[in-house]
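Let's sit down with a protein and look at its sequence and fold side by side. Go ahead whenever you are ready, and we will take it from there.
>
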Amino acid sequence: MRGWGLVARKPPTPQNPWVASKQAPPEQVQAPLRTRPVNRSPVVPVRGLVGPTPSGGLPTWEPDPSRAIPRWWWVPCHGGAGSTTLAAAIGGADAGRGGWPRYPEGVRPGVVLVARTHAAGLQSAQSAARQWASGAVGPVRLLGLVAVADAPGRLPGQLRQWLHLLAGGLPHVWAVPWHEPWRLGERPSPESAPRQVAKIARELRLAGESIERGIR
């Protein structure tokens, strides 16, 4: 993610983001974080590489079958992640604290995880991503993770490195910067959103159209 990179004097030994550890994330990152790891990140669960579903993660729920399936669901990894704001600014449906939507067999809804960039938020995102990678959340199409800034200014090095490692296990990671007007009560909308949000919207709409073709 441009603007969050930091050149380190010595590259740290990468920590596997899918293995639980009590150690704090490394403090520096060697290169700027890329939001789209090309042809390297998984796009479907890969059983056997992640191990049993870890404790924690998100619940599953069954949406009302009489309602139209949205192009994608915003699934917050924790309280206050920003899924309601993103739904208002971009579109899609907010799953709230319901977790992973589970439809009848043959329906594969699109899901976008949402998390704040503080340590607790990234840890929650990691747990949710491991759930998906283990194949334990049902037939969903995970489009990626939106990392919403938890404070103004530059993201601390150890959090950038954690997010960098997390991005290696997700189809896509987008960054939403701190937007002070939203904090002060401005109503989220496509017109008031930062330009980075407009880019996310374009990419998700293309993915949503693909999902709709698959649902029909």
Observations:
- The helical segments are 83-90, 119-133, 157-167, 180-183, 195-215.
- Residues 1-11, 26-40, 47-54 have pLDDT under 50 and may be disordered.
- The first strand starts at residue 60 and ends at 61.
- The two ends are 35 Å apart (CA to CA).
